[in-house]
Amino acid sequence: MAADADILLEITATAGFLRVAAVDAATGEEVAFMAPHGTPEAALARLARDKLAYVRNRRNAGARPARDAAPATVPRPGGRSIIA
What we know:
Low-confidence stretches: none
Domain DUF6898: 5-58
Region (Disordered): 58-84
Radius of gyration: 19 Å
Order of helices and strands: EEEHEE
Protein name: DUF6898 domain-containing protein
Structural class: alpha+beta
Largest sheet: 3 strands, antiparallel
Strand content: 25-35%
Strand order of the largest sheet: 1-2-3
Shape: flat
Number of helices: 1
Mean pLDDT: 80
Helix content: 25-40%
Number of strands: 5
Organism: Tistrella mobilis (strain KA081020-065)
Distance between the termini: 38 Å
């Protein structure tokens, strides 16, 4: 993500924390995280930018297995449980 990319922040204050949803305006990619009350907005924006970059790098690296991949566990013969 470019350093000058626009990030839209939605900050919702609740009982003891802030819920922050951040959307990359160029791609529409969204992340969310929690932060303590009193966290400066500049710090929230930096965290949002860093988390968006982390998620994008992780996705591009293929760190997650495909959803249609075969399960990694094998059913136990004659039983209903799964051997992990």
